[in-house]
Fold Synaptogyrin 3.
Amino acid sequence: MEGASFGAGLAGAAVDPVSFAKRPQTLLRVVSWVFAIAVFGPIVNEGYVNSDDGPELRCVFNGNAGACRFGVTLGLGAFLACAAFLLLDLRFQQISSVRDRRRAVLLDLGFSGVWSFLWFVGFCFLTNQWQRTAPGPATTQAGDAARAAIAFSFFSILSWVSASCGR
């Protein structure tokens, strides 16, 4: 790649959709996007169950609403960030300034590193709260959703670390 900077071809080059879709960075973004949906989706859908003593909803993770909110916020933030970074990757060839390309790469690297750490914190927090949850009808009802959110938050650590190391 003569004249290339920050892992891209010459500025203004046409984007080939097939080669773009096959790039490891693109595949990692799509996988991270799916994992984010697999974390916040089950929490939103089944993460809140009726309490034993009334019709009030409570978080399945030990009744800690902060755990549900953190999981949803983390997953939704990752979902939106993956979409934004996919668009940035798609437009990266059209960025002509080396300084702007450098900023885009550093933004991607920094955000991926921070989000990897947040996924680790989220995994530990959700796992800890699930471990402290007392067995009962509510945990039986929403247990699969809670375990899915925990599992995919772990997988998200791996995908975001890979995304930050891939640049």
Helices lie at 17-22, 24-46, 65-91, 98-131, 137-166. The first helix runs from residue 17 to 22.
